[in-house]
Amino acid sequence: MAGRHFDEWQVGDRLTHEIRRTVTEADNLFFTVMTHNPQPLHLDVEAAKESEFGQILVNGTYTFSLMVGLSVGDTTLGTLVANLGYDKLVMPKPVFIGDTLHATSEVIGLRESKSRPDTGIVTFLHEAVNQRGEVVCRCERSALLKKSG
After folding, report:
1. Exposed/middle/buried for residue 12 (C-beta within 10 Å: 0-12, 13-18, 19+)
2. Residues 56 and 28 sit within 8 Å (Cβ to Cβ)
3. Among 66, 77, 83, 88, which residue's beta carbon has the most beta carbons within 10 A?
4. What is the pLDDT of residues 83-105, one digit of tens each?
5. Does residue 143 carry a pLDDT above 90?
């Protein structure tokens, strides 16, 4: 188990997750088709060429999901009871096929659970960063975690 328990976190803890992922055409295509998203910017090369981006734009919900997934091994793996919510989701820069993303996480809040004394709520600020050092996705995630012992 790589994740930390609630009582092992402190506000201000910051992690740069080692796993990186280069987004492929197949990643974007499969995710977009699996989620029944017909947006031509994600699926139609010719339509994407005519857009302001000039190329296929990676599905933003894929980018969001990848960002959270890259963080799980270091944050909540084996200690998570439930994700309670995602807030303030923004995508300040586009992601394109071939971009390599990594994620960072910072603890911005800790709160004991009122209804479950063996758990607590950790609020993470997650960011996905591309190979140029640009933040391409950011959100706050509230996770209900087990306490140790």
Report:
1. exposed
2. yes
3. 66
4. 999 999 999 999 999 999 999 99
5. yes
Backbone angles phi, psi at 122, to 5 degrees: -105, 130
Measured from the Cβ of residue 138, the count of other Cβ atoms closer than 10 Å reads 18
Start-end of H helices in 44-130: 45-50, 60-75
Contact 67, 125 (CB under 8 A): no
Comparing CA positions, the residue from 128, 130, 85 lying closest to residue 105 is 128
Q: Quick check: 23 and 97 in contact, CB under 8 A?
A: yes
Tokens 């980018």 -> residue? 63
Q: Which residue has the tokens 């140790």?
A: 148
| Interatomic CA distance for residues 20 and 101, integer angstroms | 6
First-to-last alpha carbon distance for the chain, in angstroms, is: 14
Cα(70)–Cα(16) distance, integer angstroms: 10
Instruction: Give pLDDT tens digits for 108-139.
Output: 999 999 999 999 999 999 999 999 999 999 99
